[in-house]
Sequence to fold (801 residues):
Amino acid sequence: MPDAFLQPAATTKSHSLLAADIIIANAPDPVFVSDLEGRILQANDAVSHLLGFRQDEVLEQSLSRFISTDEAREFTAALREVVERGVTRNVVLNPRSASGEVIPTSLNASALRDPEGKVIGAIGILRDMRELDKARAYAESLIKNAPDPVFVSDLEGKILQANDAVSQVLGFRPDELIEQSLSRFISPEETREFTAALREVVERGVSRNARLNPRSASGEIIPTSLNASALRDPDGKVIGAIGILRDMREQDKARAYAESLIKNAPDPVFVSDLEGKILQANDAVSQLLGFRQDEVLEQSLSRFISPAETREFMAALDEVVERGVTRNARLNPRSASGEIIPMTLNASGLRDPDGKVIGAIGILRDMREIDKARAYAESLIKNAPDPVFVSDLEGKILQANDAVFALLGFRPDELIEQSLSRILSPEETREFLAALREVVAREERTGDNNGKQGLERGVTRNVSLNPRTASGEIIPTSLNASALRDSEGKVIGAIGILRDMRELDKARAYAESLIKNAPDPVFVSDLEGKILQANDAVFALLGFRQDELLEQSLSRFISAEETREFTAALREVVERGVTRNARLNPRSASGEIISTSLNASALRDVEGKVIGAIGILRDMRELDKARAYAESLIKNAPDPVFVSDLEGKILQANDAVFALLGFRQDELLEQSLSRFISAEETREFTAALREVVARGVTRNARLNPRSASGEIIPTTLNASALRDPDGRVIGAIGILRDMRAYEQAVRDLQQSKAELQEKILDLEKFEEVVVGRELKMIALEKELDNLRQTLGKAYSGDERN
Fold:
């Protein structure tokens, strides 16, 4: 009979061990099993591959053979943590490989338990940190060498890292900044604003345009603007912020300079709100119209123009709100003397700090002074910081600024009056002429629309040109061009702005290299789900050749339902920039359905517009096997084990629970545990769940559930956290221990104690009687002695008499 009971348990145990061995052996990460002394009992091929040792050189060896003495002590401490808490995370180990290389790794370990739940060792997963350390060093290098002031802070505002540009702006040495709270350099009010910005970083991943005015070492208050993004740990948790400061002194000077420009501009310049009320006007406006400042300011522009032109001006304001600019609106204001002055209006958006259009800055062009205006335009082109040129509609260069000569290395006389075809290939010359035709065509088509929204008026964008410099170098550039008009508004040429694309092309090539060499399956798709790029890991996962995947719709490999889910995920990428943990089950070339999880982020064009998605697939097959194995462990556990969510609803329970409480499966599952325990114990169980969320485990919580027969069953509960794939606690795994036999033993001991105490009382009473009798005998003997002495004295007196 005992053998009959032991045989199934042994079989179950052997199956469990076999499944565990298979999981460890096939894990892609380096996984090993050690006893509590640090001796390696089992290791998979990934460990041998990482360290370069054969299996027989690793197994039965102490881990201290491969790590330093200090790390051996840290590993021993980690084993103690595994015994106490069941898990340890992110222990830094630097084992020495067979070739002598010291390999930085991170160790996560969980408890290895015997059938009775006692910790007998640890299962450790090593993470090779070499690439991560390179990435971290690269990121630190980017911060250090960034031209802008960049710093890293924790969530309390303590500065952890800052580049030289921060020291240069504030005038402090690095040792005067690092490990200091930012509140040391800013006012209490700004400290509160910075703390609010940190909260925004935690919630949204980014914060923009927070205003800070730190005090420099010299005591100067420096106006700055802060843009911050989240600093995350390897698990993706926000642990701080990376802040980029923008010195606003120049911008404030620029604003003051802009106001000075308006005031001192030779052209009539005014500022109006969106109702057409004049808020600011320079002296040139007063001079042009013959009105004093107080006769112009706070007046509606409709006072000076006809009703028809007022409607045109309001339409121009609408265009400013929609497009940020309006050009060549015709106005004929009446001066103080009654003269009608023909002019054109160019206006751009007046924006608040958030970029919202709140009015317009208008420049009036007196058409009587067209030559003066042309000279002013040429001055603007000449002094522009970007390479700007003017060409006619045949591609002949009429004007170019110094930035063009610096980019291409030609003298002015070698470019001006030359055809652009001299520095472009025949193919690109045709493309440039097509771009010029587009400028003209868009101008004409927009004019045909009578002001309705259509193609962008008189402009072409992002034409790729590769001009040859004086030294023969081919320079990749991007051309944005707008129409050059004569005094009547007719397009007579183009004003082109070149953008040097060399650094951008390097960045694009680097990004493509990252995708190509990523260890995870990574693909790029457009917003329709068409696969544009995929790395070798995708082909290895799905078993298709490159030509069988690229330019194909993802819907070819997934079901119709999942195609709808993927399309919804793409919409989320467009709206939020990212989507996480979308489930896809693509069909491989062999017909196998592969369960995967998709994380995707936005793919943006040069202007920041979302044009597609970069997706990273996670093969969930091993995770699903592990989940099934865990469910099997729960089901076959000899102790009563159940799984609940954070509200206390029972999601899963094994047969031992049903046997303990006497309920059927359908009477327990999906029921709240509060149905079976008292209100007071429900509160205790809820507190235990909170402890599981906070600490990952709770121990020896007392519960007294009522069984199907009405019996109150005393139990103790030990529970550990149930986590989702991202490590977030989503419930608890509880193990109940039946305390009835224990409490009966306690009651028997208490009864024996009571009986023993009664016998002790009887013995004490008996002792009291015996001692009392002895005391009485002693007293009688004393009285007899006294009597003898008295009689002796009396006898002696009689003899003397």
